[in-house]
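Example S7 (structure tokens).
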């Protein structure tokens, strides 16, 4: 898994990888030559008393050392650059993949886990790539070259190397095999602690409201202790490795000096050869330690690679239809739709809010039709929606009302294919939504979600999500229509006022009105309002609906509502019960024919009349 992932990522950097390999081989070769030259200086220069030989060989050593340092720095720099690019590429792929997920896939992985995979897991693979470029490429060359040159210096002492290598291999194998499951479990525990932290931060007021701080502290403490225990066990294994390696290295050095001294005393070995042999055996052991360090890091990276591949290999439940060969992308609007006249002018926004004529040019039939539509979550015993059939006509408002859990939001989410219907057919302007590219489909729709969410930035940046080219006068006009202009003007920076993540520096009603303004800025044939007026007081609700009615008079508008007063003038009202469409019609018709609707209306209208 890890090897295949790394190979795929490195395929785009073949030139850089080849350069790193060449540089590492050059610096390794230079490093291996230095002990041999040092041995010659000792034997031929110092012991022989030849100062000229010392200067001559010393000059060569200085030049080779300069080459070794230069190539090592260049290889390290280039390796770091490639590793960082791999990390950036992998994060980009994960982000793009998550963007293609429906809410079902996001729910399977969980938001905290997806964040951890795109940050911590990618960082682990990035760190491994740095080690591979700086250590693992050089280690085999040092190991093989060191053995060859050590044997060249003295064949008899080379048996010490032969005896040491299996011992170090056993140590490495045992530690790595024990680290792999620990690292795999550790990444899962990291997900868990991230999930607990996220829930406790987001739900802080709920925790305080129910006085559950002690329970949550114990819950976090349990997750924290599990992660700490896992990290401690893996850290102890890594920490225990170093003393064992140093013990083997030091014992082997003692053996080399002991037996080498006896061989020099017997005239079977020269002093320079012994110093070179000691240098080579140390280089061999260092190469083994470098490889072991990489192999100890690899299990964590392998566990991370598995988790990343899980995300990348997941096929989104909702995807673009397969286009036939030679086919062009679907238009951003239904066929035969007349574009706003001003949209063709250079430098003009796609929907100039301040020009009313552009909003009222003729539109095609952009009706939203449901034909026997059903939806059920995978593995669910009962469908959330069953047999839904209706037509939301252009120029009218279609309202959806029903008890909590009746499927109102789910119905709305089927139109832009945030969820895919499991039965029946949904069409816009006569085109099946499944046959349209997702970008084109969602380009037809402006949405105000149930949970009013704003992004960190400024008020203007949030509004321009609906139309990036919109000018400030356009922003102020939609703010006026959404009854948000007064509180935005009151902000010290107006449109440039900062917005915190999620819009938490605004009240619920202010966030809701800003989200409505954002949707109004987008020129769309279809508008979806998912319980978008619930945080507004009755007076603001009435003024807002009156202000936006002329803006949307030719659009198809669907509204999920809890208050009957919000939808009393709707052209079509759908009444849902337990996922079934039990009644549809105007307010007057439903008051006569639907007991469910009469019950809802009676309880709300009486209350509102007293306000």
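Recovered sequence:
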């Amino acid at each position: 898994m890890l090897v295949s992932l790394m190979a795929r990522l490195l395929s785009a950097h073949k030139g850089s990888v080849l350069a790193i390999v060449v540089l590492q081989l050059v610096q390794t070769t230079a490093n291996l030559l230095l002990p041999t030259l040092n041995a010659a200086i000792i034997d031929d220069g110092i012991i022989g008393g030849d100062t000229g030989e010392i200067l001559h060989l010393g000059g060569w050593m200085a030049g080779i050392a300069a080459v070794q340092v230069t190539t090592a720095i260049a290889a390290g720099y280039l390796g770091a650059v490639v590793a960082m690019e791999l990390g950036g590429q992998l994060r980009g792929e994960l982000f793009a993949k998550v963007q293609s997920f429906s809410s079902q896939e996001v729910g399977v992985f969980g938001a905290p886990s997806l964040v951890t995979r795109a940050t911590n897991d990618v960082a682990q693979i990035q760190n491994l790539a740095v080690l591979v470029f700086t250590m693992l490429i050089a280690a085999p060359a040092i190991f093989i070259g060191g053995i060859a040159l050590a044997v060249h210096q003295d064949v008899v002492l080379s048996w010490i190397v032969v005896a040491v290598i299996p011992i170090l291999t056993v140590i490495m194998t045992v530690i790595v095999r024990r680290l792999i499951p620990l690292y795999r479990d550790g990444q899962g525990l990291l997900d868990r602690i991230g999930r607990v932290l996220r829930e406790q931060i987001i739900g802080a007021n709920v925790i305080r409201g129910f006085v559950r701080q002690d329970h949550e502290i114990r819950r976090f403490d349990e997750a924290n202790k599990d992660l700490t225990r896992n990290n401690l066990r893996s850290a102890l294994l890594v920490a225990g490795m170093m003393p064992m390696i140093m013990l083997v290295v030091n014992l082997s050095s003692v053996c080399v000096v002991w037996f080498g001294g006896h061989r020099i005393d017997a005239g079977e070995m020269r002093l320079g050869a012994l110093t070179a042999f000691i240098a080579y055996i140390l280089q061999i052991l260092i190469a083994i330690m470098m490889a072991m360090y990489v192999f100890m890091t690899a299990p964590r990276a392998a566990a991370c690679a598995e988790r990343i591949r899980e995300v990348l290999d997941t096929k989104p439940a909702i995807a673009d239809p397969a286009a036939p060969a030679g086919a062009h992308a679907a238009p951003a609007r239904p066929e035969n739709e007349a574009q706003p006249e001003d949209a063709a002018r250079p430098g003009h926004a796609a929907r100039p809010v301040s020009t009313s004529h552009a909003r009222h040019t003729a539109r095609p039939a952009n009706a939203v039709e449901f034909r026997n539509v059903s939806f059920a979550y995978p593995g669910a015993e009962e469908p959330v929606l069953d047999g839904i059939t209706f037509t939301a006509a252009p120029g009218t408002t279609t309202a959806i009302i029903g008890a909590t859990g009746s499927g109102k939001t789910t119905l709305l989410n089927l139109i832009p294919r945030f969820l895919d219907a499991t039965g029946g057919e949904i069409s816009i302007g006569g085109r099946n939504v499944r046959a349209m590219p997702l970008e084109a489909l969602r380009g037809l729709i402006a949405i105000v979600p149930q949970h009013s969410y704003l992004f960190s930035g400024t008020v203007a940046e949030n509004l321009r999500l609906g139309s990036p080219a919109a000018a400030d006068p356009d922003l102020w006009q939609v703010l006026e229509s959404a009854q948000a202009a007064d509180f935005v003007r009151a902000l010290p920076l107006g449109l440039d006022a900062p917005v915190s993540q999620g819009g938490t520096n605004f009240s619920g009603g202010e966030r809701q009105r800003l989200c409505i303004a954002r949707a109004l800025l987008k020129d769309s044939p279809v508008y979806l309002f998912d319980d978008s007026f619930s945080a507004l007081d009755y007076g603001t609700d009435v003024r807002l609906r009156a202000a936006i009615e002329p803006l949307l008079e030719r659009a198809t508008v669907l509204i999920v509502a809890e208050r009957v007063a919000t939808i009393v003038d709707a052209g079509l009202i759908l009444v849902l019960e337990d996922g079934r469409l039990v009644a549809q019609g105007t307010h007057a018709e439903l008051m006569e024919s639907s007991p469910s609707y009469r019950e809802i209306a009676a309880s709300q209208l009486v209350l509102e009349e007293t306000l």
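Notes on this example. The chain has three domains: 2-312, 361-444+524-611, 451-523.
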